Amino acid sequence: MNQVMKRKLKLILLTQSIILILFVLKLIFFLDPIKTSSVIINIILATISLVSIVLILIPRYSLRSIIYKYLDIIILLFSVFYAEIIFMIDNQLKFTSTTLFSLLLVMSIIGVIALIVKTKAKRIFLVAFCIYFTVYLIVQDVYYYTFHDFFSYREIVSLGAGLEFIQGAVRIEFLHIILVLLAGLTITLIQLNKRENHIKLTKKTVSILLVPLYLFFLLNINAEYPSKTKQTYQSDHYLYYTRYSNTKFISRFGAIHYSIRDFSDSITPKVPNKRELADIETFYSNNHANHELNEFTGLFKDQNLIFVMAESFDRIALNEELTPNLIRLRDEGIEFTNFYVPVYPRTTSDSEIIFNTSIIPSITDGPTCYFFSKNTFSYSLANLFKNQGYLTQAFHSNRKEFYNRHILFKGLGYDYYYGQYELGIPDDQKRYDSAFLNIAKDQMLPTDTQFFSFVTTLSGHSPYDERNEASVKHIKDVEEVLGEDLPDEIKYYIASQVEVDRFIGELFKALEEKGLLDNTVIVFTGDHYPYTITENVFENYIGVYEEYQKNHMPLFIWSNNIEPLKIDKLASSFDILPTIANLFDLDTDYKYYFGKDIFDPYNDKPIVFYKDYSWYDGDNYVKDGIKITGSGTDSYIEQRNIEIFEYYEVSIKILRNDYFKLLKHKKIN
Q: Cα(56)–Cα(319) distance, rounded to whole angstroms?
């Protein structure tokens, strides 16, 4: 071994020792932040960075010769790095030293792969990877613009539904043009600078694998650690292994690293295990969720129920002249003025699952409606009514295969699911909710049995322009009442919801004709706010700019036999099921719900769960374990974080292990 290599190996060993020492020091310091300061931490991190730079930049040959020899690979890596940076800047994602070392780690792995594959395969790899990453970033950007989150490969099973969801929301952005031009330039330069730089892995060349290894150490050293062991959910390692927030993951580790981690997770099956079952049992034993009978218990006992989940409905659509039937629901029934419907990854489908089960849908393991569609949900809303002898049915004017509803709703306990073709709704009528009601009313409102009918409307679905037939039908009425100066998207959106009002009007008429008006309850709410409206247009119109507050939605419970009432208590979509169970005096065990009966006096800590593990208690909004706004003390926030994060963790274990099926089998035996 020559002297140059010996000196290099000594330097490598020395640097590894320094890195290991710094790593241990950081762990010790972060165990108790009182013993250290930001200055010391910065010195440590600066030293680490300096060591890494010295290590990486010491060449065996001249820098110029290295650049020349590996120019094709360097061109790709520079393109990837640049694309990452502009992508993160455009989407206003924060990046830190952790992000930098994460990107360098992935780039070093890409570089090693390019070096060890044969020359022809390498050229294909470089070009294919450039095309893939460009398309990936553009798709992620479009998805993020619409859903304020990034998609997972597990979402591919719902690709058809997703494409229909974002109809009218896809826009060509300046970033997309830059990314395409960058990819074109990169591929051209790679083709013009072909290099013969294939390396065979031998004892002499295996040292190239040390570069990714170094960067792996540096990434871990720069990662954020919990200041206390019970706050592990605030660490980068918890984020990395749970991927509970795709947005935060990309912000901390980069999009290319996320794509690799996500792909690995997506092809790795999640199987039930005894440890998770034990965790579920422990959770339920520690959360008895006592439910106390109250003045509203049994208020609607033995009555029928129509649950209307209105597509994209928001309170901005309410108007005395345009939506008189919805105003009737509000003014004659129980209005919940502080009600929230948080948007989850599969939007409408996830809201259906929350309303029906009161558990958190899958956030990290793929769409609940596909990956867990055959699960058993013994304590679902439909099963509670079925146990009381009710006919349980679900209705939608779109095809029943959309979001796998024809399978999912069986597990939710529904006797029948009626979609467009089962009801015989013509294609040119399915966008009109009023036509949907008139076609479906005989199945929806049977007179020979008690019934629970769950209805999902369609007219309010985007796009909010001339392509929405329901909007076109009512746009003139909207302009006459509200004027023509409103933004077009807002006008067309409100017009689409006027059709929902017509649905409610026809529902009132049908109930009266069938003699069901006095023994049928109507629950009305939305599945999510209209997130496909251009963000600044929607925010400026409603005067709300915080994402969590956009989820503030209407909830009305109407009966012909009650006095009007307003409830100001904080509540969310998770609280619907236990509240209905109380109102109808349905036999259930309330501990199996993440929500609470809104009327229960024990319910003194209401909470709204969001998809990124953030939460809101009516005063404090907490994200990533950190209070964003509110007056809660540090000890209160810390304690609630521990409680709430447990709900998120146990929810996926419940789904992954099909817990209620096992519980049902256990009770039978």
A: 65
Rounded average pLDDT over 391-412: 95
Partners of 556 in the β-ladder: 335, 524
User: Can you tell me the distance from the alpha carbon of 475 to that of 457, in angstroms, rounded to the nearest whole number?
Assistant: 19
Lowest mean pLDDT among 167-181, 204-218, 256-270, 618-632: 204-218
SS3 61: coil
Q: Are 463 and 323 in a shared domain?
A: yes
Please provide the average confidence, as pLDDT, over all residues in the chain.
Answer: 88
Q: What is the 3-state secondary structure (H, E, C) of 179-219?
A: HHHHHHHHHHHHHHCCCCCCCCCCCCCHHHHHHHHHHHHHH
| Model pLDDT for residues 651-665, shown as the tens digit of each residue | 999 999 999 998 877
3-state secondary structure at position 613 = coil
541: containing domain:
297-607
Radius of gyration in angstroms for the set of CA atoms belonging to the chain, rounded to a whole number: 28
What mean pLDDT do residues 502-531 have? 97
Residue 475 in any domain: the answer is yes
| Residue predicted with more confidence, 233 or 4 | 233
| pTM tops 0.85 | yes
Residues sharing a CB contact under 8 Å with residue 247, sequence separation 6 or more, in sequence order: 93, 144, 148, 149, 150, 612
- Residues 531 and 468 both lie in one domain: yes
And the tokens for 457? Answer: 């409307």
Domain boundary among the residues 555, 577, 607 is at: 607
